[in-house]
Amino acid sequence: MLDQIFASQTIGFSDLPTVLFSMLLAAVFGFLISWIYRRNYRGVMYSGNFSFTLIMMTLVTTPVVLCIQHSLALSMGMVGALSIVRFRTAVKEPLDSAYVFWALTTGILLGAGQFLLAAVALLMIAILLTAMVNIQTKSINSYLLVVRMTAEAERAVAQVVGGIRIQKLKSKTASAAGVEATYEVRVDKPDALLNKIQSIQGVRDATLVAYMGEAA
User: Rounded distance, CA 137 to CA 39, Å?
Assistant: First the structure.
């Protein structure tokens, strides 16, 4: 009985059309995931290597699942082998981890022959992810406000910044040349804020930098 369960079943030439079709879909789906990642990326340093890695993850996972689904013994050995693998590359953005799992899941579904489920999951995740990224980007409007001014102008600047509903002082440096303060603010009209700050007597310059962190 055990010999039958753990008998090795290799993929033959009769399975070649299924293998080729699965690999072709893996390439197409992997490219679509990579394209969606590139379209929705909101960071500063876009990584082409990571985008290419998403395609490779889908392509590599698909034949692995195709292989292990024909043999219980091979699947158990594969689990043991993968459990000792350690990935050293750190994922910089939390959302990048979701793309990694998305590519792996797509490869698993295609390797298992779940073509319809893979297609529906790809479409639904792409729509929801694009919508959430666009909504989040439009609603945040967070900036770092850097103001260089004289000590006499500090109080007036603090009053203007204090009128913003969501704001926080991040750093402040005082020297003989004056005061430099950095605020984290959330505003809908950054140009109006800059003009108001620069109109204060004693303000040397004011700079707004787009900020993707928390502004609460």
Answer: 13
* pLDDT tens figures, 51-86: 898 999 999 888 888 877 766 555 555 555 555 455
pTM of the predicted model over 0.70: no
Rounded CA-CA distance 180/205 in Å is 10
CA 140/CA 72 separation, integer angstroms:
50
**Rounded to whole angstroms, how far apart are CA atoms 72 and 6?**
6
Chain center to CA of 171: 28
Residue owning tokens 């993929």: 11
- Whether 73 and 6 have beta carbons less than 8 Å apart is answered as yes
Neighbours of 24 (CB within 10 A): 12
How far is residue 205 CA from its own chain's centroid?
34
Neighbour count for residue 28 (Cβ, 10 Å): 15
Q: How far apart are CA 124 and CA 68, in angstroms?
A: 28
Phi, psi of 31 (to 5 degrees): -65, -40
- Listed residue (95, 115, 97) closest to 106, CA to CA: 115
